[in-house]
Q: What sequence folds into this?
């Protein structure tokens, strides 16, 4: 009888491994949900820990690039775009632009129109500073309810 119980326990070891895997996946998805709109950063961090090559993104805050509530670059914004363009100019990989968050300080635009106009302004700025238009990929909005930092732009070579 004892040998039969031991054999049964050995056959059911897979259930314990499966339960461990399920709990790990549940924990990972809870972590993603709790990251409050920073899923790309969490996934890139996990991928990097497992040895995957991950391109680092340049983060630019909209309030440091644009006039409040507008899609017009300030002089410091032009300089920031030029610095990012110089950083990505030598490569041949596509340069991805993504807007994260929304800006509440809108005058003429609603938040979606303002984000789209700002994405276009960043793309035109990169293009005017030497990045080929064919390399620039605009991904759009990763919307969050009002983020603490306001609207951000992530620019990275893929």
A:
């Amino acid at each position: 009888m004892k040998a039969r119980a031991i054999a049964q326990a050995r056959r059911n070891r897979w259930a314990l491994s499966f339960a461990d895997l399920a709990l790990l996946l549940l924990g990972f998805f809870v972590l993603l949900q709790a990251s409050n709109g920073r899923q790309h950063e969490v996934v890139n961090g996990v991928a990097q820990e497992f040895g995957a090559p991950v391109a680092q993104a340049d983060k630019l805050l909209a309030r440091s690039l644009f006039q409040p509530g507008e899609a017009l670059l300030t002089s410091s914004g032009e300089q920031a775009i030029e610095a990012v363009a110089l950083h990505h100019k030598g490569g041949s990989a596509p340069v991805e632009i993504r807007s994260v968050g929304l800006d509440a300080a809108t005058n003429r635009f609603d938040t979606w129109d303002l984000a789209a106009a700002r994405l276009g302004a960043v793309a035109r700025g990169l293009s005017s500073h030497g990045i080929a238009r064919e390399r620039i990929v605009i991904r759009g909005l990763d919307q969050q309810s009002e983020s603490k930092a306001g609207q951000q732009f992530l620019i990275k070579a893929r």
Summary: Residues 20 and 26 are 10 Å apart (CA to CA). The radius of gyration is 23 Å. DSSP finds six helices and four strands in the chain. The helical segments are 2-11, 13-34, 39-49, 62-65, 75-88, 111-128.
